[in-house]
Specification:
This protein is mostly helical. The chain has a single domain, classed as Arc Repressor Mutant, subunit A (Orthogonal Bundle), CATH 1.10.10.10. A three-stranded antiparallel β-sheet has the order 1-3-2. The chain is globular and about 45 Å long.
């Protein structure tokens, strides 16, 4: 039952739902989450970590980046069903669609560069 409690707690937070929504389109790193949701590095990493600890995500290293994706192979049927409920419930949500669109234009960059762009008032996205 601990796994189910952890999963429901992870999904009970708006920002973690928004992060999970981004990952429905495919893998991404914390810097892409930061750009898409306009959150700090610590917030993006904390939310990604909570979703990973709940059993929704897996990680892999790619150079400097830790890449997160849905753990389709590692999650059981119950967890997969929860992900599908999230997918269906956010399908027509304007904010969720906007987040996913911003995710498509996000770029992988170092945290220092991204933070400098945020301080300068420029989004860390292509074309900015």
């Amino acid at each position: 039952m601990r796994q189910q409690i952890r999963a429901f707690k992870a999904l009970a937070d708006e920002s973690r739902l928004r992060v999970l929504n981004l990952l429905l389109d495919g893998e991404c790193c914390a810097c892409e989450v930061m750009q898409a949701l306009d959150v700090s590095q610590s917030k993006a990493s904390r939310d990604l970590g909570a979703l990973r600890d709940a059993g929704f995500l897996k990680t892999r290293r790619e150079g400097l980046w830790c890449i997160y994706s849905l753990d389709h192979d590692g999650m059981g049927e119950d967890m997969a069903a929860l992900v599908e409920v999230v997918r269906r419930s956010l399908a027509g949500n304007a904010e969720a669609l906007a987040d996913r669109e911003r995710r498509r234009t996000a770029t992988r960059m170092g945290v220092r560069e991204l933070c400098a762009r945020r301080r300068a008032g420029r989004p860390g996205q292509r074309g900015a």
